[in-house]
Amino acid sequence: MARYHFSEFVLSPRRRVLTRDGREQPLIPRYFDLLVFLVEHRHEAVHRRDIFDRVWSDVVVSDSALSQAIRTIRRTLGDDSREPRFIRTVSRHGYRFVYDGVVEEDDEQAWPAAESARPQEPALQAPPAPVAAPAPDPFEPLLDRLTRVPTTAADDEDQREAAELLHGLGTADALARLGTRPRHAFARALLRDARWDAPRAGEVPVLAAPAPAATAWHLTALRLRRAARIAAARWAGAALGGGAAGALGGAFGGVLLAAAPTSSASAAVAPVLAVVGAACGAAGGAGVGAGLSVAEATFRSRRTIGLVAGGAVGGGLVGVVAQWLSRWTLAALVGVHLEVGGGLEGLAIGAAAGLGYAVATAFAEGGLAAPRGWRRVATAAVVGLGCAAATLALALSGRALVGGTVHLIAEASQGSQVVLTPLGRLVGEPDFGPVSAAILGTGEGLLFGAGLAFGLTRRPK
Known about the structure:
The protein has 14 helices and ten strands. It is elongated and about 105 Å long. It folds into three domains: 2-106, Arc Repressor Mutant, subunit A; 153-210, no CATH class; 227-456, no CATH class. The chain is of the alpha+beta class.
């Protein structure tokens, strides 16, 4: 493989190293990949879409993530966006690496030595220099920028750059100097968020810091504001995926019920159950998907815990709403009083979906997971199996899921064709018993989890 020599820099894709005069310049992995991509395509202006597909191929990020990456690379190269020497912004298109003296070298050749290691000419005896005035404190101007109230988007970007520069000077020293001055909670939250984009940044504790609740609030707001549009699209995708899975499961169950030897149901139950399944799946997908989207956009250092909690909260809230709405509707319209579940079931299924999603997308870093190809299929399978395990446990404990609830309502209503007793007889039970309920519940969970994951990980065009 070749390495690239431009100005005083050497870039080695094989060794994943960028040096300046022989000294390594740290870059986080995705920013290093972006610089390599721009240098490799230096004879063309690279579209932002192509950058996202190449550098962030397994996650979805906001446009600000790319702007942040370019700004960090420019700072590492000593470049100026107003008079670019290396990277030029192409309006409404993307970026281009414009340095025209790039030399491709064999990466097996010896590397240039660092300046400090090169032999130096003996210096002539010089008169003693006058005592210089103490250098100004580099932290204070940056801390002042960090604690101001931003009024424009440019101010937001300026504050984030100040946070990254403070990490470069020393995270611990920056936190100590920050102290409890006005807006220290916001500044601490921004330092915490920026540490993922600053190589060699130190830890920024939240719980052990002054005003932990305010810091956590500002941190959540920062991340949600940046990912709000993406999270909203993923919530809608999860609802669509869950609804499609519910429709498929309901239609299949209706066909199976109509075809059962002892069933009196007609083929018309298939579309009816498909509509019921689609409504339940879409509602569940919307709740769990919203919880997972918010958690994924907010949590980075405790991602698994955040996803489990987010899925549980989203599923539980939708389950409680569906539970009480179903009870009131049945009592008001048909006079049927049933102890319909929902809250506990939604919480358990949502938590299982969150755990499966966290395990399957552990590779995702710096954005919301958007696997492709076999990785997306594997993610859907893992989430589906997680939800299937949860629904199996619920069914074995006697908790009715969608199919079981439909059976209970049908039994309480005279003349209904969707009593699921014929399905129980297919597996050797005299009625719709625990075995048939467990099989049906497991299938519901598997389909719902897979559909949820497919919808959640859909990559926007």
